[in-house]
Amino acid sequence: MIVKLITLPKMIDKRGNLSFIEEENHIPFKIRRIYWIYDVPGGQLRGGHAFIQQQEFIIALSGSFDVLVDDLEGKRVYSLNRSYYGLFVPPNVWRQMVNFSTNSIALVLSSTSFDKNDYVYDYNEYILNKSRK
Ligand code: TYD
User: Fold this and answer.
1) How many domains is the chain partitioned into structurally?
2) Do the beta carbons of residue 114 and residue 32 sit within 8 Å?
3) Taking the CB of residue 32, how many other CB atoms lie within 10 A of it?
4) Is the C-beta atom of 106 inside 6 A of ligand 1?
5) In the predicted structure, residue 129 carries a pLDDT above the cut 70
6) What is the CATH number of the domain that holds 8?
7) How far is the CA of 118 from the centre of ligand 1 (A)?
8) Does residue 131 carry a pLDDT above 80?
9) pLDDT tens readout for residues 26-79
10) What are the residue numbers of the active site?
11) I want to staple 97 with a disulfide (CB 3.0 to 4.6 A). Which of 42, 46, 71, 119 is the partner?
């Protein structure tokens, strides 16, 4: 599994556009949890960790932000700024969200329920785990 941008269906309509996601169809996992990040003050960062098990799909439902990822393929920046695509992030990827625009909303679909023990907050530990795999 690799980090990848996934474009979602978009029903273009003069009354307003519509997009949708079906689990295990448009994204490769079953959705166990949905959360969203909003009212982010200018200059704040979110994330800054990896997950051991959790797979996730991140969408800029409104506004824009950047997702910095660091995995076996190296460090990359994905700019999310449309609600009809998102970023699939598999487990064991260091990720951080930055550059939130005013009133942006980050919607995150997760493959697991919340589990504090699934977080890796120590970058050195993350690098060690990565090199063992
Ligand atoms: P956290 O995942 O650390 O935020 P971020 O990585 O975006 O900076 O979550 C912030 C707080 O919210 C932390 O105390 C855990 C709690 N939380 C839940 O209780 N349930 C959840 O589904 C999520 C994502 C976070």
Assistant:
1) 1
2) no
3) 14
4) no
5) yes
6) 2.60.120.10
7) 11
8) no
9) 999 999 999 999 999 999 999 999 999 999 999 999 999 999 999 878 999 999
10) 49
11) 46
Centre of ligand 1 to C-alpha 99, Å, is 19
* Ligand 1 atom at minimal distance to the Cα of residue 45: 8
Residue of minimum CA distance from atom 25 in ligand 1? 114
Secondary structure, 3-state, 9-60: CEECCCCCCEECCCECCCECCCCCEEEEECCCCCCCCEEEEEECCCCEEEEE
| Ligand 1 atom nearest residue 49's Cα | 6
Residue 36 Cβ < 6 Å to ligand 1 = no
Judge if the beta carbon of residue 114 lies within 6 A of ligand 1.
yes
Atom of ligand 1 nearest to the CA of 37: 7
Listed in sequence order, the residues at least 6 apart from 33 whose beta carbon sits closer than 8 Å to its beta carbon are 109, 110, 112, 113, 114
The answer to whether residues 5 and 86 touch, using CB atoms and an 8 Å cutoff, is yes
Instruction: Write out the residue range of the structural domain in which residue 116 sits.
Output: 4-132
Torsion of CA 45, 120, 3, 72, to 10 degrees: 120
